[in-house]
Amino acid sequence: MRLTVIGCSGSFPGPDSPSSCYLLEAEGFRLVIDMGNGALGVLQRYAELFSIDAICVSHLHADHCIDAGSYWIARQFAPDGRRPAIPVYGPPGTEDRIRPFLGNRPRELDQVPFEFRDLAVGQREIGPFLVATDHMNHPLETFGFRVEHAGGRLAYSADTGECEALVRLAQGADLLLCEASYLEGPGNAPDVHLTARQAGEHAARAGVGQLILTHLVPWNDREQSRSQAAQTYHGPLSLATSGMVLEA
Ligand SMILES: [Zn+2]
């Protein structure tokens, strides 16, 4: 499967990247995981606007879901007619979170171009992908993902503090996209995000083949993130950038 990083900026968009968004492709199927602020614009560089087959939303913070509202508008009001509904997997409440972005339109006016499906801990097939989910350690319900296809395995932390479930989801993955919102230092809130060093620890414990640090907050020094993660993870390590393409 092919992974294109659309957005990897943590918590809000940066000058070089939208907020969280990842495009996964296999067998002609396009799955988008998270659609944070600015993602829909950059996504169109890598996929035709209406070519997305399914969306997964990890949690309902704006930097992971707000552009699903933009995409709803695009699919519903396309000039040559509403596009067919595609599945949108997310925590319970995803529709109620996204719908107000359309304004206070009466519900009966909408031909919703999404089929909302609640995520739960477990696994499901989405197109050609086998997608396992588990709860992460974040202040609201948040799912991490493990996606498998044709022997390739990748894991994505979404947003999380230290989390045993992340180590389990990522166990033996070829590739772990792990959030590293914090640098070492005082003032990091517990159970919200990982430091780069902690991201490295989780990757090492899971024995992943490659670690990609993501959800990088624009005010952090990227090289410090890299060096702090390298203290605890000694395998191939890189920092996500918008447009980066990876195979698993
Ligand atoms: Zn976030």
Could you walk me through the main structural features you see in this protein, from its secondary elements to its overall organization?
With 248 residues, the chain is α/β, with parallel strands linked by helices. The protein is 22% helix and 28% strand. The protein is built from 6 helices and 14 strands. The protein has helices at residues 39-46, 62-76, 94-98, 164-170, 196-206, 222-230; strands spanning 2-7, 21-26, 29-33, 54-56, 86-90, 114-118, 122-126, 129-135, 143-149, 152-156, 175-179, 211-214, 237-239, 245-247. Strands 6-5-4-3-2-1-14 form a 7-stranded mixed β-sheet. Strands 7-8-9-10-11-12-13 form a 7-stranded mixed β-sheet, covered by helices on one side. Helix 2 links the parallel strand 4 and strand 5 (86-90). The chain is globular. The mean pLDDT is 96. Residues 10-11, 20, 61, 63-64, 159, 215 line the site of zinc ion.
Task: Using brief descriptors, characterize the structure shown.
about 250 residues, alpha/beta, 7-stranded mixed β-sheet, globular, binds zinc ion
SSE layout and pairing:
Blueprint: E1 2-7, E2 21-26, E3 29-33, H1 39-46, E4 54-56, H2 62-76, E5 86-90, H3 94-98, E6 114-118, E7 122-126, E8 129-135, E9 143-149, E10 152-156, H4 164-170, E11 175-179, H5 196-206, E12 211-214, H6 222-230, E13 237-239, E14 245-247
Parallel strand pairs: 3-4, 4-5, 5-6, 10-11, 11-12, 12-13
Antiparallel strand pairs: 1-2, 1-14, 2-3, 7-8, 8-9, 9-10
Helix pairs in contact: 4-5, 5-6
Bound molecules: zinc ion.
Zinc ion binds next to helix 2.
